[in-house]
Amino acid sequence: MTPSVSSERRPDLDWIRVGAFFLLILYHVGMFYVPWDFHVKSPHPVEWLQPLMWLTNPWRLTLLFLVSGAATRFMADKLSAGDLAKARTARLLPPILLAVFVIVPPQTYYEIVEKLAYAGSFAEFYGKYVTASGHWRPGGEPLITPTYNHMWFVVYLFLYSLILAAALKWGRGVVATLDRGVERVLDGWGLLVWPVLVLVVLRATLFPMFEVTHALIDDWYNHAVSFGVFLLGFLIAKSEVLKARFIALRWPALLLAMASYGAYAALGWFLPDTDEITTGEIARQTAFALDQWFAIAAVLGFGGKHLTRGGPVLTYLTLGVFPFYIVHQTFIVVAGHYLARLGLNQALEAAILVAGTFAACFATYELVRRVNLLRPLFGLKPLVAAEHVDRADAAQVNRGTV
Fold first, then answer.
1. pTM for the full model?
2. Which residues, including other chains, have CB under 8 Å from residue 265's CB and lie 6 or more apart?
3. Residue 146 — φ and ψ, nearest 5°?
4. Which of 119, 159, 245, 283 sits a CA distance of 20 to 30 A from 293?
């Protein structure tokens, strides 16, 4: 069996990545209001937001890792393993360092201001932040600094890319064999059944032992899922056979995702919070895993069917999502902290926070894309000359950003 592969970059995956990042921004705005732990919180939590947050919670980041694996495949097929590692290092490491030492510190500062009533200046705080001498314990847990907070996704993506590059150094010849194997395994309804089975098993075995921490060294359930779908995205990226199967099963996947979400949300709403392994909690976690893959399959199916065109808007947004991702959470934390003190109507406050966050993201991108010194810090390649901005940006879409 010879896999049917596409050598061109897929606009559906680029649109999906843009949409997933925009959902992530809205999700983090929601974290300011929903009654869950976050760096800063609205003094008026909104209980009914929880089902809306659960709507994307199981699959949003898993989808991003899958699409990032696909983007890496298009790069890897054009580069040697060493060049792939160098390219990912140049693209991902500078933004990580920028985030740790510039972007993220305000998040930690306002967190301890709100949770610990910290009265020191930001300058005083920053000295303790970079030297790990603050010894802050919001919620009773030690706050480790310096830290990467929301940039954990990029840290993990960087690690996975280096592991993949090392594997390609010695095993690039087996990629075509693995491509064919994945096409055989995901034949027919296997496209929905087998990934779900794996996710259910991981949720039942690793998740109770390793909660999601984003702390890199002890996050084994999260690594199993995220690295697994990253590799899956790498293997299915160019398969026209699997693209057609996702399209064919898009409606069943959507209906199954809706049913799984309904079960997950209902169980989460009515079951009491507990750390015990109860029948209800087992059912809830199973519904989470079902929704996780069925929603991804539906997104890939409808995206493959309808998101078939590129163009200047996609070019612009594909390059912009990485700068958006870098700055969005810091703006939400800082703006949310001050907006909450103005006593505004909450709906107006939320609208300002959403609009302000997107405005800050677009403003940052517009600045960064024009300043060669800043571009590498936000995941964009430097430009040879300013007059080539649009041409270079369009070319970079074929390489992806994250």
1. 0.93
2. 51, 54, 55
3. -65, 160
4. 159
Q: Of 175, 51, 31, 77, nearest to 400 (Cα)?
A: 77
Rounded Cα gap, residues 11 and 34, in angstroms: 34
Farthest CA pair distance, the chain = 67
Nearest to 378 by CA among 169, 173, 97, 124: 97
Read off the pLDDT of residues 24-48 as tens digits, 9 standing for 90 and up: 999 999 999 999 999 999 999 999 9
Tens digits of per-residue pLDDT, 35-85?
999 999 999 999 999 999 999 999 999 999 999 999 999 999 999 999 999
Backbone φ, ψ for residue 239 (5° rounding): -85, 110
First to last CA, the chain: 32
Residue type, 221: Y
Count the residues in the chain.
Answer: 402
267 within 8 A of 280, measured Cβ to Cβ: yes
Q: How far is CA 43 from CA 47, 138, 178, 340, 346, in A?
A: 12, 17, 52, 7, 10
Amino acid at 51: P
Question: In this structure, which long-range contacts are made by residues 32-41, counting pairs with CB atoms below 8 Å and at least 24 apart in sequence?
Answer: 32/332, 32/333, 32/336, 32/353, 33/346, 33/350, 37/139, 39/107, 39/108, 39/110, 39/111, 39/114, 39/149, 39/333, 40/110, 40/111, 40/114, 40/333, 40/336, 40/337, 40/340, 41/114
Backbone angles phi, psi at 5, to 5 degrees: -120, 155
